[in-house]
Amino acid sequence: MNQSYFSLLNKIYFGQKIIHYFTIGILVSFFISCSLNARSNNKPIKNYFKGSEEEIHFGRLSPIDFKFRSSSCTSTYNCTHNLFDSNRSTEWISKVSSEPEWVLVDFSSKRLMNRLEWEISENSAKIEEFQIQVLFHEEWQTIRTIASPPGIGSVNFGNIDASTLRIYFPKSKESQFSLKNLRILLNNSILTGIPQRLTGYTLPIPNVLIPEDEYSLPGAPRKYRNGIHKGLDLFQVINKEGNISVMNFNTPAVAINDGEIVRADIDYSPMTLRDFTEISEYNKSHPVTYVNKDFGGRQIWIDHKNGVMSSYNHLSAISSHIKVGTKVRKGEIIGKVGNSGLKGEANGTAEQIHLHIEIWIDGEFLGNDMKLSEMKKFLQYFFSE
Q1: Residue 365 neighbours by CB distance under 10 Å
Q2: Residue 2: per-residue pLDDT
């Protein structure tokens, strides 16, 4: 979509209204935050990566690409992206205002659609009505009004051909709305969002920070591993006061979701300096065709029974109850972070301690067909607990 078109939309949506920004203090506190373990009693703090445009484009993992906007949000965390993550634990919360609210979905080109689904959060003010609108000749036209919508609802608004749809919420008084799982459909095919099986995972280390640098992300180019990094490297944790520290050999690793252990390197043989040197030299000039012993070190693999598998690398220890066939629950400690398989282990030092975790979806590693900026956004949806 070209710049002039978005400029036109902005004039239509906002008029001359001034956008209110967060204070510097809120921004600072937010960007040092991270996700706490899903079982913690503390209020969760989330990793969040805001791209230049709010959009969903996740290659084979999202049905259709689209962009989205809304009239307001209380915070960057409780904003429009939560409407499309198929997760009932996240929500869009508007600011407190007497001004109308709206949510815009833009597919960039025409698309057939006929149904809308929604869920109004329990803490939302009562929504008297909302309108489904299309943009025709630069003006919004209402094609369906839903009066007194139920908490969870669905409506067929007729078979239409459009590229842009707006859900418009009039207000008669100052109030705050909160919604989740807003879906546009064609018959039973969801056009907005990601599959439910790809959201609701907890981070593999409590209080961990997802690195800002793209080198640590899945899909990043590497001189080894056949030229591509297939996992997410995690190095730092943060406490609720905002203090950041590096990991150590006692840092726990937890199951990102329920599943079954399909690999546990209980009899792992530590990497020696000779092993490390030989593997490094061979991999410089030869493709990796079979992995017997390599830089992954001590590993645990979990089959989450929904086409998703997680692989934990470089562990220093595996919990005593973990073995092949063990059923684990989301957030359960399965081992400890380390540097196994790396030069630090070969030298007998604490260098390079981190967790390398790979997410495999339907037999392909997460990140194989995404830009690194898209990868950051996807991780925000994936690790949403």
Answers
A1: 18
A2: 43
CATH code that applies to domain 208-382: 2.70.70.10
Read off the pLDDT of each residue in 92-117 and give the average, rounded to a whole number: 96
Other beta carbons within 10 angstroms of residue 197's beta carbon come to 15
Question: Looking at domain 3-13+63-193, which of 3.40.190.10, 2.60.120.260, 2.40.10.220, 3.20.20.140 is its CATH number?
Answer: 2.60.120.260
CB of 127 within 8 A of CB of 167?
no
- Contact in structure between 116 and 183 (CB atoms under 8 Å): yes
Taking the CB of residue 234, how many other CB atoms lie within 10 A of it? 22
Domain boundaries along the sequence of the chain: 3-13+63-193, 208-382
Rounded Cα distance between 190 and 155, Å, is 14
Q: DSSP letter string over 211-265?
A: PSSGGGSTT-B-SSGGGB--SEEE-EEE-TT--EEE--TT-EEE-SSSEEEEEE-
220 three-state secondary structure: coil
pLDDT in tens, 277-330: 888 888 778 877 777 777 899 999 999 999 999 999 999 999 999 999 999 999
Query: Do strands 178-186 and 92-93 pair parallel, antiparallel, or not at all (unpaired)?
Result: antiparallel
Cβ contact 334:253 at 8 Å: yes
3-state secondary structure of 61: helix
Parallel, antiparallel or unpaired: strands 252-254 and 333-336: antiparallel
Decide if pLDDT at 26 tops 80: no
Instruction: For 157-199, write each residue's pLDDT tens digit.
Output: 999 999 999 999 999 999 999 999 999 999 989 999 888 899 8
- 255 and 302 in contact (C-beta within 8 Å)? yes
47-72: b or e for each residue (b if 16 or more CB lie within 10 Å)?
bbeeeeebbbbbeebbeeebbbbbbb
